[in-house]
């Protein structure tokens, strides 16, 4: 029987066309939607346990994302480095960089897992202060179990970034599909059949992430990505010049993402002051609105690959061309998604087992999000990936930090308390944050100050 290959020959720098861009994009969009489905499944299926369970998972997710961003950012740095090496057709250095990414991400994730297991409850108390006993128990259970999945998630993120850097997003989409099937099936079994509640949702997440890590590693080792070879990966040899290149992008990206998540934690603490009703409404709104920006994130991920390869080949003209094309397409997707949420926010909120007060508040949150986000989100979160792909990660970090602390954190306090908007003020401050980022990143891109940045080491 003839073996069916999952590998896809990526378009080389300067040769991306509508067809090759479509082959890269549609699996990324599907994958991002599937990623949201996992979060929706956990929240919807565990909502039968009660609002305390929904709230517990929600507050843990905010902290987990802060921790996970450390190796997600390193995967971004690795994706930029590997894409640039592929762009200049240096497959040997691309393979070396791939191994270094997996090494450092595994180490970081093991460190974070140990930290979480030792300090789970004190960390929850430090960040959120006093919580209802039921919410705290749910949060602690979910946090402890999912912490064991950090190494698997780090390996999967690294492997997925490598496939995308080579222009092969189909594999990661298929793996994401399998993971969702496992997660939803596990939720149904452990929550509904064995009545394990929050613990069942956490165990299902742990198993599905572990399967994803093992499967993607096996595919890379078997040669399904022609531009990248992991041969000899278990004979650990560190290449510090390449690690520095990865960290030059990964550290600013990690600090940017960490500041973003830390800001979200501080802002979510404002929400907790308004009670369980506001916490549950905020949790459900975050799940629903993620369905709109996840497709947009696919365009940002595509920009890392396309612009990274173009910059690696020193083809700045095509880097500009493809950035403009993908940003325009991202706008189209965002307007469609947000308009759909505005029209369907009532039935969407009704999917969750919420009290009438929580349901009303969630619909207000969704209106603010859906009415304003599509005007600013693509320039706020997709465009900076082009800057990062060119090596301009420090600028992105600086703007993101200023915007988060001034507009989202300080703005949320002013609007929620001084202006008397309550929890709704948190969502209004988010729109101000988006607007500021969009203006700064667009100005940077137009002026061309991202060109000429150095990421990869020539001749290495």
Question: Your description of this structure?
Answer:
The protein is mainly α and 460 residues long. The protein has one domain. It contains 13 helices and no strands. The chain has helices at 18-46, 51-87, 91-128, 133-147, 150-165, 170-193, 197-221, 240-272, 276-312, 316-350, 356-389, 393-418, 424-447. The two termini are 41 Å apart. Mean pLDDT is 87; it is low at 1-14.
Overall pLDDT level: 87
Structural class: mainly alpha
Rg, alpha carbons:
21 Å
Number of domains: 1
Number of helices: 13
The end-to-end span amounts to 41 Å
| Gross geometry | globular
How are helices and strands ordered from N to C? Answer: HHHHHHHHHHHHH
- Unreliably modeled segments: 1-14
Task: Tell me the total number of β-strands.
Answer: 0
Tell me roughly what share of residues is in helical segments: over 70%
Approximate strand percentage: under 5%
Quick one: biggest sheet? none
